[in-house]
Design brief:
Elements (H helix, E strand, L loop, with lengths): L6 E5 L11 H11 L6 E10 L4 E3 L28 H13 L5 E3 L6 H10 L7 E6 L4 H12 L7 E7 L2 E2 L15 H16 L2 H5 L1 H4 L3 H4 L7 H10 L3 E4 L3 E2 L3 E2 L2 E4 L1
Parallel strand pairs: 1-6, 2-5, 2-6, 3-4
Antiparallel strand pairs: 1-11, 7-10, 8-11, 9-10
Helix pairs in contact: 1-3, 4-9
Keywords: Dioxygenase, Metal-binding, Oxidoreductase, Zinc
InterPro entries: Extradiol_dOase_DODA, Xdiol_dOase_suB
Family: Belongs to the DODA-type extradiol aromatic ring-opening dioxygenase family.
Length: about 260
C-alpha cells in the first residue's frame, strides 16, 4: 500500500524560472524532497482551460512551450516524463462517479504550468505525469468539488498538484522591481487567503470575489487561482503554508500543502 500523499498547490511564476535556479526553485525541490516519491503525478494547471474537465492520456506527453517573447534557451528545455494513461482513466472514472463528466484527451502534453515546477521538483523526469484542465468560468465551488472527487488518488500514490498563482496579475508586472518587493494590494490579498485557510473558512475563501481585498487586481481572470481550490478539495485541511513571498511585484509565490 503506497504512503498517503498530501495534495499540493504551487505558484509557478514566470516561465523564466525554468532556467533561473534560485530561491523559488530550491523551495520547490525542498517541498518534493519532504514527500514520499509519488507513483504518478496529476497536475491541475492554470494553462489548460476548457469548458468541461479534460484529462490527458498522452504517453509520452510532449513539452509545450506555451509562451512567447522569452529567451531562446527556454524553448530548448524539455521535460521527458512518461505519460500516465492509467491515471487518466482513473481520473475519468472518479469524475464520472461525482457527476463531473469530462473527456480524455489522447494528445495533450505538459504546458509550462506543469513542467516548469516539475523540472525542479522531480528533475529525473522518471515519474509518470498527466494533466487535468481547469474550468475557470465555473468558479471556486466547482473546483473544490473537482478536487474532492480526486481525493482517493492520494491513497493510490498519485500526487495531485495544483499549479497557478496565489496572486497573478500580468498586467502590472514590474520586471525591474526587486524580486521580493510586492505591491501593497498583492500583500493584502495574499495574507487574506492565508488567514482564511488557517482558520478553515472555506466558504469565505470560495467567495473571494466579494470578500477579499482587491480581488480583481489580484486575479483579473480566474484560471490561476482555481487550481488552489482543486488541490484544497483533494487534500482537505489542515493547510500548511509555504511562504515564498513575491516576484515581479504582482506575483504571489506562496505554495500550500493540504492534508
Amino acid at each position: 500500500m503506497p504512503d498517503r500523499l498530501p495534495a499540493l498547490f504551487v505558484s509557478h511564476g514566470a516561465p523564466t524560472l525554468a532556467a533561473d535556479e534560485g530561491y523559488f526553485t530550491h523551495a520547490w525541490r525542498a517541498i518534493a524532497d519532504a514527500l514520499p516519491k509519488p507513483r504518478a503525478i496529476l497536475v491541475v494547471s492554470a494553462h489548460w482551460d476548457t469548458d468541461a474537465p479534460m484529462v490527458s492520456s498522452a504517453h509520452p506527453p510532449r513539452t509545450i512551450h506555451d509562451f512567447s517573447g522569452f529567451p531562446p534557451e527556454l524553448y530548448e528545455i524539455h521535460y521527458p516524463a512518461p505519460g500516465a494513461p492509467h491515471v487518466a482513466a482513473r481520473v475519468d472514472a472518479l469524475l464520472r462517479d461525482a457527476n463531473l463528466e469530462g473527456r480524455i484527451d489522447p494528445q495533450r502534453g505538459l504546458d509550462h504550468g506543469a513542467w516548469v515546477p516539475l523540472l525542479w521538483m522531480y528533475p529525473s523526469a522518471d515519474i509518470p505525469v498527466t494533466q487535468l484542465s481547469v474550468q475557470s468560468r465555473r468558479g471556486a465551488a466547482h473546483h473544490l468539488a473537482l478536487g474532492r472527487a480526486l481525493a482517493p488518488l492520494r491513497d493510490e500514490g498519485v500526487l495531485v498538484l495544483g499549479s497557478g498563482g496565489v496572486v497573478h496579475n500580468l498586467r502590472e508586472l514590474d520586471w525591474h522591481r526587486v524580486a521580493k518587493e510586492p505591491f501593497p494590494w498583492s500583500v493584502a490579498f495574499n495574507e487574506w487567503v492565508a488567514a482564511r485557510l488557517a482558520a478553515g473558512e472555506l466558504d469565505a475563501l470560495a467567495d473571494y470575489r466579494r470578500r477579499a481585498p482587491e480581488p480583481a487586481r489580484a486575479h483579473p481572470t480566474e484560471e490561476h487561482f482555481v487550481p488552489l481550490f482543486a488541490a484544497l478539495g483533494a487534500g482537505g485541511l489542515p493547510a500548511s503554508r509555504i511562504d515564498l513571498a513575491y516576484d515581479l511585484g504582482s506575483l504571489g509565490m506562496d505554495c500550500y500543502r493540504f492534508g
